[in-house]
Write a structure and sequence with these properties.
The structure holds two protein chains of two kinds. By secondary structure, chain A is α+β, with helices and mostly antiparallel strands. Chain A has helices at about 35-45, 90-100, 105-110; strands at about 5, 10-15, 20, 50-60, 65-70, 80. Chain A has one domain: Folate-binding fold, CATH 3.30.2270.10. In chain B, the strands form 13 sheets. In chain B, strands 8, 9, 12, 13, 14, 15 and 28 form a seven-stranded mixed β-sheet that branches. In chain B, strands 41-42-43-40-34-44 form a six-stranded mixed β-sheet, with helices on both faces. A six-stranded antiparallel β-sheet of chain B has the order 46-47-48-45-50-49. Classes of the chains: A alpha+beta, B alpha+beta. The interface of A and B includes residues 20, 34, 44 and 58 of A. The structure holds zinc ion.
Chain lengths: ~120, ~1000
């Protein structure tokens, strides 16, 4: 069982949290010209990498706040915990963010310029 | 030769009990039974040592061949002596006799035998052993596939499985769970673990030291030839424990197995609190599960000795050499009278000397090494013992107990027998093929292993978690090295996390200098033709022989994981503690590869079998899941209501009167709600208080319809979608103030909706100022519905007018009702004039009783969830989760009217615009009226156009809701049918699963009752 450092409560057992899956999935703005296929990248496609993964977690049985976690899916090492709406600071997590196929999608482009929040990250 | 066995005395003389020595309490004799016979042992005995003391050698039958089996070991690795312990509901199967502490009145039984241990019918399997080669099940039970369920599986299930659980499944014992944090957790309280505890404890770190045995000390308790600081080891152990007990930061947990090591140093321990007591005091649990988060871990698990692989090595009387020593020195028991020793290392010589000291005749020492030498060998020779270097035991023979050993010279390079065999009578073979470090926990925690060439064993190399190993578990078999490693590991663990620590001072050790390096030979010397000769066992518990493993390799299995599954080696309850390395050795020999090249299997938790009772703890029965009750619950119970579970809630289902059936009761409730008035406890509806500057904007985004212009005091029905456009929840939300809303959700969806809203607020729209509070439990809700609803409330004394002009449909007012403060919502889920009265929850019962008292004059009838379902179905109102299943859009439900086309965005908007959402053959919600009005179509029934078409039939969709409507006096149903909206008026059929006549129905609109909505105003 993972030991996760909630940014608001500190170290807690994994069972107090829920994982919200991949982080930094930008929601296209209302006004967009995405095709159904392009929109599906946002709606359905989720990453499942071996190695560093940027995830959203919520401290369900604690403060009920969402935050981002950079976790190695092989070693289960938690590399970084960082707030919603921000991008990671550590080298490994920064690289994972940059390398994601999602950065190149029309769906992500359609989420700019507004929407600075966590799911949309940047 | 002097004989030191106990003279016969008393009723149950324990013939093999030594007259002195051991850590048993000879002042405390205890009585126990095994297979119905009474025996005597002493406090401090295990069941195994007590059985041996009583000359009971045959203690079980093996799993596949039903071969006679005895006690192999003296610890957790025991594969043979599996016991069914206890009486009645407390019976527990598959316990290792070597770990069962004796207590007065203990009742035990052997397993896998029928009709009795000495006469076992299943042993006939042995005669047909050629029918049970490796992969037997795979080869035999392959074809035809249809035989699986009816023939093969029952046969296998009958043959497989070990002991039988208690017939009474109500475990009378109590179990506990506890959580703990510590700085340093030490697994194993032998020499290394104790030293680690001294070092870490002295630094001030919070230390937990756990050991699976009843006493700390590990193998030190079994050694008679070792002194520490000039005294026998137990004296040093006692002094060390006294020092540790004096440290407030150290917790000692004896009888506690560290059984699982998970991510981030999360470790679980099983403490056997009461298992060793005849009567566990009421204030103690039987077992306690510890869940520990440790900052650092020291693994000092020790090692297990390996059996030597030779024919008949499973006969009762064949025992691990260290175990023999343990029975003599720790338990004061002689496991035999005349022994042969077979070894490939020096350690067995210590057993030789212990046996001689105990008066056991050592008939021969068979040393597999080419030229056995060294001080211990020399000492044996000096004592005149016959030491046979470069010899091997080819076979052990006997019927139910060892009778003699067949021995011959062999070539340690090839395994070929090079001389004539000779035979030595014996009732005990003490064997040692070297030692296997217990890397189980290290490996569970994903630590890596390396092969130690010198000691021919895997030992920890790199660590995945914050941990380190010490002692025999780390490949340090020599006592001085083990203690030094333990002291260092404890200090290092503490200093890594900021404590000032240094290695504790080890005692002065006086012990024989033994060469623990085993001979690197993994063959099975035999003079029999390949495939014949006595079976040489690798995995005792699963009856896997050396030939089975060789056969698997010959059949093409090369990966150790595949050989393991094919032969089932290492897959029994002991997880191959004594067998894995021997199997690897044989595989490597067959493949011509080294052991590290062959690799090792994965260690899984738990280290030893762990009772489910302790894992469940107190989370059973009523405490398994919370049950939520409304404030009016006692009233419903008094009224004789039947209940149903809705999520965690208990809701009144229906209220039978005077012997009514459910159908009669529901029909009455449904009718009365339309002819007079009905009252429903709706307290369980999810309620969320929404406030903040942007509350209206927030609702506008999460619901499909428009919310910005909803006037204060008005209510609106809303539908919530997931972002894929599928219906997720629905409910009525009311604007209580400019920036204040009261949202209701479905009962089952309340928590999910709350989480959903929080997620969007926090992660997508943090710029919105919105505050969400779950207030489900803050309000009790009574819904009064029906033509008499208004008059009942008026009679009760309502501070506001309930007339249509001032209190119209879909509005809300704060008021006092019978003097009680309430919020009244004029909304309707029945289609009748309806008031949903919310009251601070503590006043719920008072409100309900007031309503019932005044309402009785007007026919006010309590109705349950079943009547609620029928009432809403008569009106064609959907229930999310019944009509919908996560793949249904508002358009599919015919609810286009609720989807705003003007709003720029809402959750699910873009997804609804996908081309596939407009497909004509999507399943759509329709009503159904059966041709025979008395036919109620079963929910879930599938619709077809032609009931006579060949199978598989083309199915249109399924019935989602179906009831008999007492108000319409006919059956009504709703269904999700492909292209259903365009099929109004058409006929469909519902074939019945039981083969009875298909039900014929016509597709209709979904509103069956009062389609114009005239009843809403009473
Ligand atoms: Zn928190």
């Amino acid at each position: 069982m993972l030991l996760i450092k909630c940014p608001f409560c500190g170290d807690r057992d994994e069972l107090e949290f829920s994982c919200g899956g991949e982080a930094h999935i930008a929601r296209p703005l209302a006004e967009n010209t995405l095709t159904d296929a392009e929109f599906a990248d946002y709606l359905f496609l989720r990453d499942n990498p071996k190695g560093v993964f940027l995830e959203r977690w919520i401290h369900t049985d604690g403060c009920r706040r969402w935050f981002n976690v950079a976790r190695d899916t092989v070693s289960h090492e938690i590399i970084e915990v960082y707030p919603m709406g921000e991008t990671p600071k550590t080298e490994a997590a920064k690289a994972a963010h940059k390398a994601s196929w999602r950065r190149q999608t029309a769906a992500e482009a359609a989420a700019k310029p507004a929407s600075p929040a966590g799911r949309s990250g940047s | 030769m002097k004989t030191r066995f106990m003279k016969k005395s008393g009723t149950k003389p324990a013939a093999m009990r030594l007259p002195e020595g051991g850590r048993i309490n000879r002042g405390k004799p205890v009585q126990f039974t095994f297979d119905g016979t009474s025996y005597q042992g002493f406090e401090g005995d295990t069941l195994a040592s007590a059985l041996l003391a009583n000359s009971v050698y045959l203690v079980g039958r093996s799993f596949k061949y039903h071969r006679p089996r005895g006690i192999l070991s003296a610890g957790a690795e025991e594969p043979n002596a599996l016991i069914r312990l206890g009486k009645g509901a407390r019976i527990e199967p598959n316990l290792r006799a070597t770990q069962i502490e004796l207590y007065d009145g203990l009742t035990s039984e052997s397993q896998n035998r029928w009709p009795s241990l000495n006469l076992d019918v299943g042993a006939i399997n042995s005669l047909f052993h050629r029918f049970f080669p490796a992969g037997f099940y795979y080869k035999t039970f392959m074809w035809p596939a249809s035989f699986w369920k009816s023939v093969y599986e029952p046969v296998i299930r009958n043959a497989a499985g070990l002991g039988k659980a208690a017939d009474d499944h109500n475990d009378p014992d109590r179990y506990e769970k506890t959580h703990q944090h510590c700085d340093v957790l030490i697994a194993g309280g032998g020499a290394a673990g104790l030293m680690a505890a001294l070092s870490a404890g002295a630094s001030g770190a919070r230390v937990i030291l756990a050991d699976e045995q009843n006493e700390f000390g590990g193998w030190l308790l079994s050694e008679g030839d070792t002194t520490l600081d000039g005294e026998a080891s137990p004296a040093w152990i006692a002094a060390t424990l006294a020092r540790l007990e004096a440290m407030e930061n150290v917790t000692l947990l004896p009888r506690t197995t560290v059984f699982a090591y998970m991510d981030h140093n999360y470790i679980t321990l099983m403490e056997r609190v009461g298992d060793h007591m005849a009567e566990c005091p009421a204030h103690l649990p039987r077992q306690r599960l510890w869940k520990i988060r440790a900052r650092e871990v020291v693994l000092a698990q020790g090692c297990h000795e390996r059996p030597v692989v030779f024919g008949g090595n499973d006969l009762p009387g064949v025992m691990l050499s260290g175990a023999v020593r343990s029975y003599i020195n720790r338990y004061g028991v002689a496991p035999g009278r005349r022994a042969v020793v077979i070894t490939n290392n020096d350690d067995a010589y210590r057993t030789v000397f212990a046996m001689i000291e105990a008066g056991i005749h050592v008939a021969a020492i068979v040393d597999m090494r080419p030229a056995a030498a060294g001080p211990l060998v020399a000492e044996a020779m000096r004592m005149g013992l016959s030491v046979h270097s470069s010899h091997a035991v080819l076979a052990a023979e006997g019927t139910r107990h060892l009778g003699y050993a067949k021995i011959a010279r062999y070539n340690p390079k090839t395994g070929d027998v090079t001389g004539d065999p000779f035979y030595i009578d014996c009732d005990l073979i003490a064997m040692s093929a070297g030692f296997t470090p217990l890397v189980n926990l290290h490996s569970q925690a994903r630590g890596k292993l390396e092969w130690d060439e010198e000691f021919c064993c895997f030992k920890p190399s790199t660590y995945h978690e914050a941990a380190q190993s010490a002692g025999a578990g780390n490949g340090a078999f020599d006592l001085a090295t083990a203690m030094a490693e333990g002291a260092k590991a404890g200090a290092e663990a503490a200093s890594r996390i900021g404590f000032e620590a240094s290695p504790a001072q080890a005692p002065a050790i006086d012990a024989p200098v033994a060469d623990f390096r085993p001979l690197n030979f993994w063959g099975v010397p035999s003079d029999a033709a390949p495939g014949s000769g006595p079976k040489a066992f690798i995995d005792y518990q699963n009856d896997v022989t050396a030939s089975d493993i060789k056969l698997a390799v010959r059949e093409g299995y090369q990966s150790v994981e595949h050989v393991k599954r094919y032969t089932t080696n290492g897959m029994a309850t002991d997880q191959g503690k004594t067998s894995n390395i021997n199997a690897l050795g044989i595989i490597s020999g067959e493949l011509g590869a080294t052991i590290p090249e062959v690799g090792t299997t994965t260690f899984r938790l738990p280290y030893t079998p762990t009772s489910l009772g302790a894992i469940a703890g107190r989370d059973i029965k009523g405490l398994f899941d919370p049950v939520r009750l409304t404030r009016m619950d006692p009233w419903h119970r008094e009224a004789g209501a039947k209940f149903e579970h809705v999520g965690q809630w208990m809701r009144a289902w229906y209220y039978p009167q005077d012997g009514e059936t459910m159908e009669e009761a529901v029909n009455r409730e449904v009718r009365r709600a339309r002819t007079h008035a009905g009252i429903l406890d709706a307290s369980t509806l999810g309620k969320i208080d929404i406030r903040g500057r942007d509350a209206a904007e927030f609702l506008n985004r999460v619901y499909t319809n428009a919310w910005l212009k909803l006037p204060v005091g008005r209510c609106r029905y809303g539908l919530m979608l997931k972002d894929d456009g599928m219906v997720m929840d629905d409910g009525v939300t009311t604007r209580l103030g400019e920036n204040h809303f009261h949202m209701t959700t479905t009962t089952g969806g309340a928590a999910g909706v709350m989480a959903w809203l929080e997620e969007w607020k926090q992660t997508e729209w943090p710029e919105l100022e919105v505050y969400l509070t779950s207030v489900t439990e803050q309000w009790s809700v009574a819904t009064v519905s029906g033509p008499n609803a208004r008059i009942i409330l008026e009679k009760l004394g309502c501070s506001v007018s309930l007339r249509d002009d001032s209190f119209p449909f879909m509005s809300c007012k704060e008021a006092r009702l019978a003097g009680l403060p309430v919020r009244i919502f004029r909304i309707s889920f029945t289609g009748e004039l309806s008031f949903e009265i919310n009251i601070p929850s503590r006043l719920g019962m008072a409100l309900w009783k007031n309503l019932m008292q005044v309402g009785s004059e007007y026919g006010l009838t309590p109705y349950g969830t079943e009547a609620m379902h029928v009432l809403r179905a008569e009106k064609g109102f959907i229930i999310v989760g019944q009509e919908t299943d996560g793949s249904v859009t508002p358009h599919d439900l015919g609810m286009d009217w609720i989807v705003s086309s003007k709003k720029p965005d809402f959750i699910g908007k873009r997804a609804l615009e996908r081309a596939s959402m407009a497909l004509k053959d999507r399943k759509q919600l329709v009503g159904l009226v059966t041709e025979n009005p008395m036919d109620v179509i079963p929910e879930g029934a599938h619709a077809v156009l032609d009931p006579n078409q060949p199978m598989p039939m083309e199915m249109l969709g399924q019935v989602t809701s179906s009831y008999f409507s007492p108000n319409l006096n006919q059956s009504i149903a709703m269904a999700m049918l492909k292209g259903g909206h365009a099929m109004k008026g058409e006929t469909v059929w519902f074939p019945m699963i039981d083969g009875s006549e298909p039900i014929k129905a016509t597709i209709t609109d979904t509103v069956f009752y009062d389609p114009k909505g005239e009843k809403l105003n009473g």
